[in-house]
Structure formats: C-alpha cells, structure tokens
Amino acid sequence: MITKQQWHGVDIYVLENEQLSFSLCPSIGNNGYRLFDKAAQREVLRVPDNPSVLAASPVHYGTPVLTPPNRIKNGYFKVGEQEYRLERNEKNNTGNHIHGFSVGRPWKVTGASKGEDKLTITSEFSTADFPELLEQYPHEILMEMTYELSGSALLQKVVVRNDSSKPAPFGFGLHTWFLLDHQPEKWQLQLPVSASWELGSDLTPTGNLLPLGDLAELTNGINLQNRNLDDVFQIGEYTPLAVLRRDNYEIRYVPSAEFKQWVIYTKGVTEDVICLEPYTWVTNAPNLSLDADTTGFRTIDPGKKLELEVLLEIRHS
Fold this sequence. Notes:
Blueprint: E1 2-7, E2 10-16, E3 20-25, E4 31-37, E5 42-43, H1 51-56, E6 65-66, E7 71-72, E8 76-79, E9 82-85, E10 97-98, E11 108-114, E12 119-126, H2 131-136, E13 141-150, E14 153-162, E15 168-169, E16 173-174, E17 176-179, E18 188-190, E19 195-199, E20 205-210, E21 222-223, E22 228-234, E23 242-246, E24 249-255, E25 261-269, E26 273-279, H3 292-295, E27 299-300, E28 305-316
Antiparallel strand pairs: 1-2, 2-3, 3-4, 4-5, 6-16, 7-10, 8-9, 11-12, 12-13, 13-14, 14-28, 15-27, 17-26, 18-21, 18-23, 19-20, 19-22, 22-25, 23-24, 24-28, 25-26
C-alpha cells in the first residue's frame, strides 16, 4: 500500500507492507524519516515529533541526504581551473561548509508504483531549480532517488546525472539515525574497515590514515555500551557493510561498492542513537592531496551518470 498523507499539514508518502511501514517527507530534504518494524513493534530510526522539528534540524532525524557529505574546509575547493565556494554554514565558527546543499531543500515526487511484492516511490532534485546553488556549485545536477520496499528490506537507489558542460565533482553520503532503545549495552556494531582518518581540530582529515587501535574489533563487532564515537573510517578492501545486532535482531546497512568511507557518530556517549554514515568520498576530499582511490574523490562527466544503492534490511531469528 502507498498512500499520500498529511503530517501536521505537510505532504508525506507512506509505503507499507506486512513487515514495515516507511514514511517519506519530500519537501524537507526527501527525508525517509520513519521506518516502523511491525514484527518487533519498534521504531528503527530517530523520528522527529513534527515537520517543524525536522525543518529546524534536517540532519538530525531519519535519513538525511548529504551532497557533498560532512565538511568542506572553509567552504572552498578548486578542481582544474574551476573554483567552488560553498556556503560557510557550520555553526561553531570554523568557517567550514557542512552537510551539503540538498539537506532540507524540497524534492519533487515523480512517480510511485505497486508491484506484486514491491512498493516504489521516486523523487528528484535539480540544482537548476536553485539559483543560489548554481552560484556556489556551477553544475546542473539532477539527482533521482527511488525507494523500494520489499518484505523486511528497504532499498534506496540513487542516479545522479551531470547536465552541465563540464565535469562535476560529486560526493554523496547519508546520515542515518538508528535507535538503540536506550539500551546500548545490548547492541553490537560490526563495521569492516581498514583504517581511521586522523582529524584536525575542525574535524576535517589531516590526510593521515591511522591504525584502528582500540577499535580494531569493529570488523567482528564491538559492544556499544559507553562508546563515544565521532570517527571517520576508510573501508579499504572490505565490502561496504554495517550491522547492528541485539539478541535475535539484526539491522544490515549495505551500501554499493562506490561507497569508500564510513562516519560513525553517537552524539556523545551512547544512549539512544547511533548515526551510520556511508560516504562515496571522505570529508573534505577535494582538498586532500591524496589519490582518488584513497579519498573516494570523483567527478561525473557531462551527460554521464553515477548510480548508487544502499540496502537497509532487518532480520529476525
């Protein structure tokens, strides 16, 4: 079942089957802000109380879309002869740009369909609709995002097309908030990664990759009690994967191979939330003097597309 509903006066779309109910708010960043697990009778994501709360803090609930992800130092980078000056919007006065240009901005729903075992909704976002964005990032980029709900799995497909005449640097990330039910001691996080990025005082990478140290067991799984994480990891040769487990309950978050980095954020010492953030490029990638295989930096050629997928699957045993 797919229904268009009102959420305190704001249009939302709800995709619902026997296992899950998924709510999407296109007008506030195309945020998939609610995923309810019917079998476990629990909210999977951190849900805002109302649209005003989401609009005031669009990166703090549900599944915010980051383009580019995380920070750009001083809001500036240069690729070839083209300069980019993004809004310097980080609130702690570092002068950095943070969280990208699509967070909180409206998307347009372009289609929805119901198949035999799959519910689908598609939205799009074009930088051409926002003159203030073209001043900062002079490329007409069309992002098309499709959510597919099937059984206990939610698949997010993203197609990014460069409609401008020059190669467009493009980084994509998600900032997905998972609930820990105020019981972090019962949860484990498995995150196969090869190294962590050393961060400067403004939380942008210095360019140095460090051993995992106390977090070396992430590949097999660590308990989340008393964790205080705000860390950037390189996936390296591993397959992109994050798994949250408790008892006989498992959440698998599986990005496609284009995702090269993870950020894990617990908003202080673990209590009720953990943010799992898959990125195609690392924080501030365009300004790092490292090879693209390491940073994930990429451009999309004129007329070409970048295709990404992220699967969120819930398993009960």
